[in-house]
Every structure is written in C-alpha cells, then in structure tokens.
Amino acid sequence: MNARNETIVVAGGARTAIGHIARSLAGLKPEDLMVDAIQATLSRSKLAKDKVDGVIVGWVGQSFSAPNIARVAALRADLP
C-alpha cells in the first residue's frame, strides 16, 4: 500500500539482449530494445496496458536519443 491506500504490484521483468560494442546490436537504439522488454513483460504478466501507472528500468548508460529511457520506452510501447 502507498500513501493513497493503493496496492502497488510489480508485474514482472525482462531484460534486453546483450551485445558487444559495434557488433550485432550496433544499429539499435537502447530505447527500442527496452520497448521489447516492456512488451515481453506485459505479455508474460497478462497485464492490460491501461493498468500500468509507471515503468522502472535499470540502464547502464544514458542514451542521447532518450535521456529518460523509461518514459520514452513506455510511450513507444503505447503505455499511458
């Protein structure tokens, strides 16, 4: 429960692919990889997108194209 008496649920998690610098994943943006992880989590949890209030991610480096990668990836995954 939080301060507003709402239940907080962790729906699950997924990780992105692991690659080496300048190899197979070089052409992909980090936020695009994160969209796949979000969609996999939603699919496994069978949670409706409209039930998601927030997305929390861990990321080693900050992307120039998406400084707030969790928000950008959530929007690209069609989350509210």
State Rg: 14 Å
Q: How many domains, as an integer?
A: 1
Number of helix segments? Answer: 2
Shape summary: elongated
Query: How are helices and strands ordered from N to C?
Result: HH
Question: Structural class from helices and strands?
Answer: mainly alpha
The proportion of residues forming helix, as a percent range, comes to 25-40%
Distance between the termini: 22 Å
DSSP strand count? 0
Strand content: under 5%
What's the rounded overall pLDDT mean? 85
Main sheet, how many strands, which sense, barrel? none
Q: What ranges have pLDDT less than 50 throughout 5 or more consecutive residues?
A: none
If you had to describe this structure to a student in words, what would you say it looks like?
With 80 residues, this protein is mainly α. It has one domain. Helices cover 30% and strands 0% of the residues. It has helices at residues 30-45, 69-76. The chain starts with 29 loop residues before the first helix and ends with a helix.
List keywords for this structure.
single chain; mainly alpha
Q: What is the fold's blueprint, element by element?
A:
Elements: H1 30-45, H2 69-76
Helix pairs in contact: 1-2
